[in-house]
Amino acid sequence: MKKQLKNIPFSVLDLATVIEGKTPADTFKNSLDLAQHAENWGYTRYWLAEHHNMISVASSATSVVIGYIAGGTKKIRVGSGGIMLPNHSPLVIAEQFGTLASLYPHRIDMGLGRAPGTDQLTAMAIRGERFNAANDFPQDVLKLQAYLSSDNSTSSVRAIPGEGLDIPIWILGSSTDSARLAAALGLPYAFASHFAPAQFLSAINIYRQNFKPSVHLKAPYILACVNVVAAHTDREANKLATSLYQLFRGIVTGKRKLLQPPVESMDDIWTPYEEEQAGQMLACTFTGSKGTLQRDLQQFLDQTQVDEIMATSHIFDHQARMLSYQLLGEVFKENI
Q1: CB 11 within 8 A of CB 43
Q2: Contact 144/171 with Cβ under 8 angstroms?
Q3: Predicted structure pTM score
Q4: Nearest alpha-carbon partner for 312 in 204, 191, 184
């Protein structure tokens, strides 16, 4: 049966973007404001991502920010999209999320990623002698599951709090490797199509074909994260999206900046090569009015048949970003 936007959950990925002229403190205040409104607009989840040594991303202490958002909201699920598990001991993450789940019962999600969430030099500073810990990712996920299980109560090493708590674990991915792991463990799968769309369709097909039901999940469940810039008109949305384009130009060139204000045209800002490279990463980007978004997102849903869509929105002005999420929520709830 063909899926309809109005019948699937929709969620927020907040990359805790620091904008030009503002500070991380401003970012956190705006994040809480957005989360409180998103809760009222019908969003299902509000996830934050672990990044390090990035001038424009403030969520390096991801668990701390999750607690701040969960503490300022009432019912929306709050979690990680994701925690980069090779940067941490599985026991410490079990304790951190066990603490969060004890404070905010039945509201905490734990999305786990394999990448460092940073450059190699910073990864070395974080991991030290465990620099190659990404190779242990599958085993570390199993360790984390063990620490959170009731069966671990007889172990000599226990996660207190954490043990026996209902904390859904998600596998995050931007490649086919993560799809195979999520399928083998019978866990929900969240794909980073907002910046790494190249292997998206292959990965979700592999996940579906190889999925093994588990005590956690009986059938495959796929969440796709996409970029969304919504406004009252296509013209206005396209201008707002130039902040996103400038951000990705910085990724392509390695010259990262705080999120820049929108411009009338990108022609004098990026080269054809930079535009092409950024465009490849931004293939899953949806920009426009409610009518345009409804059409384009429904086509995306028809093509992918995902179970949930999560939106991240790099918009310079806070009120414009709030309006974007409000309009997107209406797209999912209305027949436009």
Answers
A1: yes
A2: no
A3: 0.94
A4: 191
**pLDDT string in tens for the chain (336-residue length):** 789 999 999 999 999 999 999 999 999 999 999 999 999 999 999 999 999 988 889 999 999 999 999 999 999 999 999 999 989 999 999 999 999 999 999 999 999 998 766 677 877 787 767 766 667 899 999 999 999 999 999 999 999 999 999 899 999 999 898 999 999 999 999 999 998 999 999 999 999 999 999 999 999 999 999 999 999 999 999 999 999 999 999 999 988 899 999 999 999 999 999 999 999 999 999 999 999 999 999 999 999 999 999 999 999 999 999 999 999 999 998 865
Which residue bears the tokens 């990463």?
A: 281
8 A C-beta contact, residue 68 and residue 32: yes
Q: What are phi and psi of 14, to 5 degrees?
A: -105, 115
Whole-angstrom distance, CA of residue 96 vs CA of residue 99: 5
Q: Is 303 within 8 Å of 248 (Cβ atoms)?
A: no
Q: End-to-end distance of the chain based on CA atoms, in angstroms?
A: 20
Looking at beta carbons, which pairs linking 116-121 to residues 24 or more positions away fall under 8 Å?
Answer: 116/52, 116/84, 116/86, 116/87, 117/49, 117/50, 117/51, 117/52, 117/84, 117/87, 118/51, 118/52, 118/53, 118/54, 119/53
Q: How many CA atoms lie within 13 A of 118 on its CB side?
A: 25
State which H helix or E strand residue 7 sits in: none
For residue 212, count other CB atoms closer than 10 A to its CB. Answer: 11
Unique residue bearing structure tokens 């070395």:
124
Give all domains of the chain, ordered by start, each with its CATH number. Answer: 5-333 (3.20.20.30)
Q: Which of 69, 70, 61 is nearest to 101 (CA)?
A: 70
CA-only gyration radius of the chain, Å:
19
